[in-house]
Amino acid sequence: xxxxTVFDFAHxxxxxxxxxxxxLASLGVILCxxxxxxxxxxxxxxICLALLFLLYNAEFLAVVQIIxxxxxxxxxxxxxxxxxxxxxxxxxxxxxxAAAFAFVFVMLGELxxxxxxxxxxxxxxxxxxxxxxxxxxxxxxxxxxxxVVFELASVLLLVAAVGVMCLAKFSFTLIKKRAR
Amino acid sequence: xxxxxxxxxxxxxxxxGTAGFIIRKNPLIMFMSIELMLNSVNFLLVxxxxxxxxxxxxxxxxxxxxxxxxxxxxxxxxxxxIFRTRHDMxxxxxxxxxx
Lengths: 180, 99
Known about the structure:
heterodimer, A: Four Helix Bundle (Hemerythrin (Met), subunit A), 7 helices, globular, B: mainly alpha, Helix Hairpins, 0% strand, elongated
């Protein structure tokens, strides 16, 4: 089912509003001084992006975005913030902040110019329209064309899990003695 | 909505993430900025997979999510360990490895 037909009266308007909201939420992430508010802004940003994925016919990825990012990863962030205590940062040096923003907005303009220099060639893919973005189509692609990468990703996740357990069980008394 | 809008939104989110990584001192918020950058690339891949009618972009986005999840888990464990040993969260003060 094409979710975009639901919003057919104003597809472009919905994409515009959700996209601008995503940008505003990401501004909130970097400008809030309290880490807990940053995490909440990031969750709203993830939800906006999931909506955008839906509007661009990536239903499976939208669900994965909600479950993995807005669910698992952000809950992990919130747990760590709760564990470490969400202290506010000391105020910034305003010159650094201004320099960072100037740099970044110059880069933004440059990226935009680079990306719009030549029009992208439209290709006709072989995916039928009713399958596009569904779990079935993605599964077929994943297990036929990208099987090796899939197995490598599973190895990566295993290594990450084992590495985190090693980090968590490691004893730090030696390092503490040396630091003093 | 045209390709220019998608590029503009994605580039803005990416640059905001870069700025956040530069100006913040809390390692948790720096991690969140990295997540912002990864997410902007994901959005660009998904939108272009729609424009080009090919699913490769969505597969790449899926793998980016996998790598990001693994990276967050390891990074948060490292932050937690640093906090346990030093009781300090400011990245400007963590300079033990500095030559």
